[in-house]
Amino acid sequence: MSHVLPEHKKRRIALIGLVGIAALTTALAAAALATGSKAGGSAQVIACPSPVAAIPAVPASAQAEVTRELANLDTQLAEANKRLVDTVGQGGANFVENAILGPLEDKRVAALNRIETAIGRQAAKPEGLERFARCELGAPGQAAPEPQVTTTSGAAEPGGAQVIVCPSPVDAIPAVPAGAQAEVTRELANLDTQLAEANKRLVDTVGQGGANFVENAILGPLEDKRVAALNRIETAIGRLAAKPEGLEEFARCELGGAGQVTPPSSGSPATSSAPAAGGGAIACPSPVDAIPAVPAGAQAEVTRELANLDNQIAEANKRLVDTAGQGGANFVDNAILGPLEDKRVAALNRIETAIGRLAAKPEGLERFAPCALR
To answer: Within a 13 Å sphere around the CA of 57, how many CA atoms are in the beta-carbon half?
Structure first.
Protein backbone atom coordinates (compact mmCIF):
# COMPACT_ATOMS: atom_id res chain seq x y z
CA MET A 1 0.00 0.00 0.00
CA SER A 2 1.13 3.52 -0.55
CA HIS A 3 0.74 5.84 2.37
CA VAL A 4 1.89 9.25 1.10
CA LEU A 5 0.02 12.37 2.12
CA PRO A 6 -0.18 15.51 -0.07
CA GLU A 7 2.94 17.68 -0.39
CA HIS A 8 1.25 20.87 0.83
CA LYS A 9 2.39 20.44 4.43
CA LYS A 10 5.63 22.06 5.51
CA ARG A 11 7.31 19.03 7.00
CA ARG A 12 7.32 15.29 6.60
CA ILE A 13 8.62 12.75 9.04
CA ALA A 14 9.42 9.09 8.80
CA LEU A 15 7.30 6.42 10.43
CA ILE A 16 8.00 6.21 14.13
CA GLY A 17 6.33 2.96 15.11
CA LEU A 18 8.72 -0.03 15.37
CA VAL A 19 6.34 -2.81 14.65
CA GLY A 20 6.91 -6.45 15.01
CA ILE A 21 9.65 -7.95 13.12
CA ALA A 22 8.95 -10.11 11.07
CA ALA A 23 6.27 -9.19 10.18
CA LEU A 24 5.49 -6.13 11.01
CA THR A 25 5.85 -4.84 7.40
CA THR A 26 5.77 -6.93 4.26
CA ALA A 27 4.92 -5.06 1.08
CA LEU A 28 2.85 -6.48 -1.76
CA ALA A 29 6.03 -7.10 -3.72
CA ALA A 30 7.19 -9.56 -1.08
CA ALA A 31 3.78 -11.20 -1.12
CA ALA A 32 3.99 -11.59 -4.86
CA LEU A 33 7.44 -13.15 -4.55
CA ALA A 34 6.20 -15.57 -1.94
CA THR A 35 3.32 -16.44 -4.21
CA GLY A 36 5.68 -17.02 -7.07
CA SER A 37 7.94 -19.36 -5.13
CA LYS A 38 5.16 -21.39 -3.56
CA ALA A 39 2.50 -21.41 -6.25
CA GLY A 40 4.42 -21.10 -9.47
CA GLY A 41 3.93 -17.34 -9.74
CA SER A 42 0.48 -17.61 -11.32
CA ALA A 43 -1.63 -16.80 -8.27
CA GLN A 44 -3.01 -13.36 -7.50
CA VAL A 45 -2.32 -11.05 -4.59
CA ILE A 46 -4.68 -8.93 -2.54
CA ALA A 47 -4.61 -5.20 -3.31
CA CYS A 48 -6.16 -2.53 -1.07
CA PRO A 49 -6.89 1.17 -1.66
CA SER A 50 -4.82 3.64 0.34
CA PRO A 51 -6.64 5.97 2.74
CA VAL A 52 -3.73 8.37 3.12
CA ALA A 53 -4.79 11.03 0.62
CA ALA A 54 -8.09 11.32 2.51
CA ILE A 55 -6.48 11.82 5.92
CA PRO A 56 -6.14 15.49 6.93
CA ALA A 57 -3.12 16.97 8.71
CA VAL A 58 -2.44 14.91 11.82
CA PRO A 59 -2.04 16.75 15.15
CA ALA A 60 1.31 15.99 16.79
CA SER A 61 -0.34 14.31 19.77
CA ALA A 62 -2.20 11.91 17.45
CA GLN A 63 0.82 11.19 15.30
CA ALA A 64 1.97 7.98 17.00
CA GLU A 65 -1.48 6.40 17.00
CA VAL A 66 -2.18 7.26 13.36
CA THR A 67 1.23 5.92 12.34
CA ARG A 68 0.60 2.73 14.28
CA GLU A 69 -2.78 2.17 12.62
CA LEU A 70 -1.36 2.79 9.15
CA ALA A 71 1.26 0.16 9.95
CA ASN A 72 -1.56 -2.12 11.13
CA LEU A 73 -3.22 -1.79 7.73
CA ASP A 74 -0.02 -2.95 6.07
CA THR A 75 0.39 -5.81 8.54
CA GLN A 76 -3.19 -6.95 7.95
CA LEU A 77 -2.60 -6.93 4.20
CA ALA A 78 0.64 -8.89 4.53
CA GLU A 79 -1.07 -11.49 6.72
CA ALA A 80 -3.97 -11.80 4.28
CA ASN A 81 -1.60 -12.27 1.34
CA LYS A 82 0.29 -14.92 3.30
CA ARG A 83 -2.95 -16.74 4.00
CA LEU A 84 -3.87 -16.46 0.32
CA VAL A 85 -0.64 -18.28 -0.53
CA ASP A 86 -0.90 -20.85 2.27
CA THR A 87 -4.48 -21.84 1.38
CA VAL A 88 -4.17 -22.12 -2.40
CA GLY A 89 -6.59 -24.80 -3.61
CA GLN A 90 -8.60 -24.95 -0.40
CA GLY A 91 -12.34 -24.39 -0.06
CA GLY A 92 -14.98 -23.70 -2.66
CA ALA A 93 -15.78 -20.85 -5.01
CA ASN A 94 -16.34 -18.34 -2.19
CA PHE A 95 -13.47 -19.42 0.05
CA VAL A 96 -11.25 -16.38 -0.58
CA GLU A 97 -14.15 -13.97 -0.10
CA ASN A 98 -15.48 -15.59 3.07
CA ALA A 99 -12.24 -16.67 4.73
CA ILE A 100 -9.81 -13.91 3.70
CA LEU A 101 -11.28 -10.80 2.06
CA GLY A 102 -14.27 -10.52 4.41
CA PRO A 103 -12.26 -10.76 7.66
CA LEU A 104 -9.64 -8.41 6.19
CA GLU A 105 -12.32 -5.81 5.46
CA ASP A 106 -13.58 -6.03 9.05
CA LYS A 107 -10.08 -5.49 10.42
CA ARG A 108 -9.49 -2.54 8.13
CA VAL A 109 -12.78 -0.91 9.15
CA ALA A 110 -11.68 -1.11 12.78
CA ALA A 111 -8.23 0.35 12.05
CA LEU A 112 -9.65 3.16 9.92
CA ASN A 113 -12.16 4.00 12.66
CA ARG A 114 -9.30 4.23 15.15
CA ILE A 115 -7.52 6.68 12.86
CA GLU A 116 -10.64 8.86 12.70
CA THR A 117 -11.03 8.72 16.48
CA ALA A 118 -7.37 9.54 17.16
CA ILE A 119 -7.50 12.67 15.00
CA GLY A 120 -10.96 13.58 16.30
CA ARG A 121 -9.69 13.87 19.87
CA GLN A 122 -7.48 16.83 18.89
CA ALA A 123 -9.03 18.28 15.71
CA ALA A 124 -11.99 17.92 13.37
CA LYS A 125 -12.75 14.23 13.04
CA PRO A 126 -12.44 12.90 9.48
CA GLU A 127 -15.38 10.80 8.33
CA GLY A 128 -15.84 8.08 5.77
CA LEU A 129 -12.45 6.40 5.85
CA GLU A 130 -14.30 3.08 5.92
CA ARG A 131 -14.67 3.39 2.15
CA PHE A 132 -11.04 2.30 1.92
CA ALA A 133 -11.69 -0.92 3.82
CA ARG A 134 -12.63 -3.12 0.88
CA CYS A 135 -9.78 -5.01 -0.83
CA GLU A 136 -9.78 -7.11 -3.99
CA LEU A 137 -7.64 -9.65 -5.76
CA GLY A 138 -5.17 -8.01 -8.11
CA ALA A 139 -2.25 -8.89 -10.35
CA PRO A 140 1.04 -9.83 -8.67
CA GLY A 141 3.78 -7.24 -8.46
CA GLN A 142 1.72 -4.28 -7.25
CA ALA A 143 4.42 -3.13 -4.82
CA ALA A 144 3.93 0.03 -2.79
CA PRO A 145 6.27 2.25 -0.73
CA GLU A 146 6.21 2.36 3.04
CA PRO A 147 3.52 4.55 4.66
CA GLN A 148 4.20 8.11 5.69
CA VAL A 149 2.19 10.67 7.57
CA THR A 150 2.48 14.42 8.01
CA THR A 151 2.55 16.43 11.18
CA THR A 152 1.37 19.98 11.63
CA SER A 153 4.16 22.51 11.07
CA GLY A 154 6.21 23.32 14.11
CA ALA A 155 5.48 20.04 15.84
CA ALA A 156 8.32 18.42 17.67
CA GLU A 157 9.89 15.27 16.30
CA PRO A 158 8.14 12.38 18.03
CA GLY A 159 9.77 9.55 19.86
CA GLY A 160 12.40 11.48 21.80
CA ALA A 161 14.87 10.93 18.92
CA GLN A 162 16.37 7.91 20.70
CA VAL A 163 16.26 4.22 20.01
CA ILE A 164 17.32 1.17 21.98
CA VAL A 165 20.48 -0.52 20.73
CA CYS A 166 21.77 -3.95 21.74
CA PRO A 167 25.11 -5.75 21.26
CA SER A 168 25.17 -8.71 18.89
CA PRO A 169 26.09 -12.17 20.25
CA VAL A 170 26.67 -13.68 16.81
CA ASP A 171 30.47 -13.50 16.72
CA ALA A 172 30.64 -15.21 20.13
CA ILE A 173 28.53 -18.20 19.08
CA PRO A 174 30.59 -21.20 17.93
CA ALA A 175 29.73 -23.48 15.02
CA VAL A 176 26.19 -24.72 15.51
CA PRO A 177 25.45 -28.45 15.11
CA ALA A 178 22.88 -29.15 12.41
CA GLY A 179 20.48 -30.54 15.01
CA ALA A 180 20.53 -27.23 16.90
CA GLN A 181 20.38 -24.92 13.90
CA ALA A 182 16.63 -24.33 13.85
CA GLU A 183 16.46 -23.51 17.56
CA VAL A 184 19.44 -21.15 17.43
CA THR A 185 18.01 -19.39 14.38
CA ARG A 186 14.67 -19.04 16.14
CA GLU A 187 16.26 -17.53 19.26
CA LEU A 188 18.30 -15.05 17.21
CA ALA A 189 15.03 -14.00 15.60
CA ASN A 190 13.54 -13.71 19.11
CA LEU A 191 16.29 -11.27 20.06
CA ASP A 192 15.34 -9.10 17.09
CA THR A 193 11.65 -9.33 17.93
CA GLN A 194 12.30 -8.37 21.55
CA LEU A 195 14.28 -5.33 20.45
CA ALA A 196 11.59 -4.23 18.00
CA GLU A 197 8.91 -4.57 20.69
CA ALA A 198 11.01 -2.57 23.16
CA ASN A 199 11.56 0.21 20.63
CA LYS A 200 7.83 0.28 19.91
CA ARG A 201 7.13 0.63 23.61
CA LEU A 202 9.71 3.42 23.81
CA VAL A 203 7.71 5.33 21.20
CA ASP A 204 4.30 4.53 22.67
CA THR A 205 5.25 5.64 26.21
CA VAL A 206 7.05 8.90 25.46
CA GLY A 207 6.53 11.29 28.37
CA GLN A 208 5.25 8.66 30.79
CA GLY A 209 6.71 7.86 34.20
CA GLY A 210 9.58 9.42 36.08
CA ALA A 211 13.32 9.61 35.57
CA ASN A 212 13.78 5.84 35.79
CA PHE A 213 10.76 4.81 33.73
CA VAL A 214 12.67 3.65 30.65
CA GLU A 215 15.14 1.68 32.75
CA ASN A 216 12.54 0.01 34.93
CA ALA A 217 9.73 -0.50 32.43
CA ILE A 218 11.60 -1.16 29.18
CA LEU A 219 15.36 -1.77 29.43
CA GLY A 220 15.17 -3.98 32.52
CA PRO A 221 12.48 -6.33 31.17
CA LEU A 222 14.26 -6.41 27.80
CA GLU A 223 17.48 -7.52 29.48
CA ASP A 224 15.64 -10.33 31.28
CA LYS A 225 14.12 -11.56 28.00
CA ARG A 226 17.50 -11.45 26.26
CA VAL A 227 19.15 -13.41 29.08
CA ALA A 228 16.53 -16.13 28.66
CA ALA A 229 16.95 -16.26 24.86
CA LEU A 230 20.76 -16.32 25.11
CA ASN A 231 20.57 -19.11 27.68
CA ARG A 232 18.37 -21.09 25.31
CA ILE A 233 20.99 -20.69 22.58
CA GLU A 234 23.68 -22.02 24.92
CA THR A 235 21.49 -24.95 25.94
CA ALA A 236 20.54 -25.84 22.35
CA ILE A 237 24.19 -26.04 21.30
CA GLY A 238 25.18 -27.78 24.54
CA ARG A 239 22.89 -30.72 23.85
CA LEU A 240 25.00 -31.73 20.83
CA ALA A 241 28.40 -30.08 21.33
CA ALA A 242 30.45 -28.13 23.86
CA LYS A 243 28.14 -25.64 25.54
CA PRO A 244 29.15 -22.00 25.02
CA GLU A 245 29.22 -19.91 28.19
CA GLY A 246 28.85 -16.23 28.94
CA LEU A 247 26.46 -15.16 26.20
CA GLU A 248 24.56 -13.28 28.90
CA GLU A 249 27.12 -10.50 28.50
CA PHE A 250 25.20 -9.50 25.37
CA ALA A 251 21.90 -9.09 27.22
CA ARG A 252 22.26 -5.47 28.30
CA CYS A 253 20.91 -2.81 25.92
CA GLU A 254 21.10 0.98 26.08
CA LEU A 255 19.51 4.06 24.60
CA GLY A 256 21.30 5.36 21.52
CA GLY A 257 21.36 8.86 20.10
CA ALA A 258 19.20 10.04 17.24
CA GLY A 259 21.99 9.98 14.68
CA GLN A 260 23.46 6.71 15.84
CA VAL A 261 22.88 3.81 13.51
CA THR A 262 23.31 0.63 15.50
CA PRO A 263 21.67 -2.41 13.98
CA PRO A 264 19.48 -4.48 16.23
CA SER A 265 20.80 -7.74 17.60
CA SER A 266 22.39 -9.88 14.92
CA GLY A 267 22.95 -7.00 12.50
CA SER A 268 26.16 -5.63 14.02
CA PRO A 269 28.84 -7.90 12.55
CA ALA A 270 30.28 -7.13 9.13
CA THR A 271 28.36 -10.13 7.88
CA SER A 272 24.98 -11.03 9.33
CA SER A 273 23.89 -14.64 9.45
CA ALA A 274 22.82 -17.43 11.67
CA PRO A 275 25.86 -19.35 12.91
CA ALA A 276 27.10 -22.00 10.53
CA ALA A 277 25.65 -25.46 10.86
CA GLY A 278 26.81 -28.68 9.31
CA GLY A 279 24.79 -27.83 6.18
CA GLY A 280 25.83 -24.19 6.05
CA ALA A 281 23.98 -20.98 6.79
CA ILE A 282 23.09 -17.88 4.84
CA ALA A 283 25.44 -14.94 5.33
CA CYS A 284 24.72 -11.39 4.18
CA PRO A 285 26.94 -8.29 4.06
CA SER A 286 26.06 -5.52 6.50
CA PRO A 287 25.21 -2.08 5.05
CA VAL A 288 25.72 -0.25 8.34
CA ASP A 289 29.17 1.21 7.65
CA ALA A 290 27.91 2.61 4.34
CA ILE A 291 24.96 4.45 5.91
CA PRO A 292 25.70 8.14 6.63
CA ALA A 293 24.55 10.02 9.72
CA VAL A 294 20.81 9.52 10.06
CA PRO A 295 18.57 12.56 10.68
CA ALA A 296 16.46 12.28 13.83
CA GLY A 297 13.28 12.25 11.78
CA ALA A 298 14.47 9.20 9.84
CA GLN A 299 15.97 7.29 12.76
CA ALA A 300 12.97 5.11 13.56
CA GLU A 301 12.41 4.06 9.95
CA VAL A 302 16.09 3.25 9.39
CA THR A 303 16.17 1.23 12.61
CA ARG A 304 13.05 -0.63 11.54
CA GLU A 305 14.50 -1.50 8.14
CA LEU A 306 17.75 -2.71 9.69
CA ALA A 307 15.61 -4.95 11.88
CA ASN A 308 13.79 -6.09 8.73
CA LEU A 309 17.11 -7.11 7.20
CA ASP A 310 17.85 -9.25 10.26
CA ASN A 311 14.38 -10.76 10.23
CA GLN A 312 14.73 -11.60 6.55
CA ILE A 313 18.00 -13.44 7.21
CA ALA A 314 16.49 -15.32 10.15
CA GLU A 315 13.48 -16.34 8.05
CA ALA A 316 15.71 -17.43 5.17
CA ASN A 317 17.91 -19.50 7.48
CA LYS A 318 14.82 -21.08 9.00
CA ARG A 319 13.56 -21.98 5.55
CA LEU A 320 17.02 -23.37 4.72
CA VAL A 321 16.70 -25.72 7.69
CA ASP A 322 13.06 -26.61 7.08
CA THR A 323 13.62 -27.47 3.40
CA ALA A 324 16.88 -29.40 3.74
CA GLY A 325 17.01 -32.07 1.05
CA GLN A 326 14.21 -30.59 -1.03
CA GLY A 327 14.45 -29.53 -4.67
CA GLY A 328 17.27 -29.81 -7.17
CA ALA A 329 20.69 -28.22 -7.52
CA ASN A 330 19.30 -24.70 -7.85
CA PHE A 331 16.61 -24.93 -5.17
CA VAL A 332 18.39 -22.81 -2.56
CA ASP A 333 19.25 -20.11 -5.06
CA ASN A 334 15.81 -19.93 -6.66
CA ALA A 335 13.60 -20.51 -3.62
CA ILE A 336 15.59 -18.86 -0.82
CA LEU A 337 18.57 -16.69 -1.87
CA GLY A 338 16.80 -15.05 -4.83
CA PRO A 339 13.68 -13.98 -2.92
CA LEU A 340 15.89 -12.90 0.01
CA GLU A 341 17.91 -10.62 -2.28
CA ASP A 342 14.71 -9.03 -3.62
CA LYS A 343 13.46 -8.35 -0.08
CA ARG A 344 16.83 -6.85 0.90
CA VAL A 345 16.85 -4.57 -2.14
CA ALA A 346 13.43 -3.24 -1.10
CA ALA A 347 14.52 -2.67 2.52
CA LEU A 348 17.78 -0.98 1.48
CA ASN A 349 15.87 1.28 -0.92
CA ARG A 350 13.56 2.28 1.91
CA ILE A 351 16.59 3.20 4.04
CA GLU A 352 17.90 5.41 1.23
CA THR A 353 14.49 7.04 0.78
CA ALA A 354 14.00 7.65 4.52
CA ILE A 355 17.31 9.48 4.80
CA GLY A 356 16.80 11.27 1.48
CA ARG A 357 13.63 12.96 2.69
CA LEU A 358 15.62 14.95 5.26
CA ALA A 359 19.25 14.92 4.05
CA ALA A 360 21.41 13.90 1.10
CA LYS A 361 20.12 10.57 -0.16
CA PRO A 362 22.69 7.77 0.01
CA GLU A 363 22.98 5.72 -3.17
CA GLY A 364 24.11 2.21 -3.95
CA LEU A 365 23.06 0.36 -0.80
CA GLU A 366 21.64 -2.32 -3.10
CA ARG A 367 25.17 -3.71 -3.38
CA PHE A 368 24.62 -5.22 0.07
CA ALA A 369 21.55 -7.17 -1.08
CA PRO A 370 23.07 -10.45 -2.38
CA CYS A 371 23.66 -13.14 0.24
CA ALA A 372 25.39 -16.50 0.00
CA LEU A 373 25.79 -19.82 1.78
CA ARG A 374 28.85 -20.14 3.93
So the answer is: 14
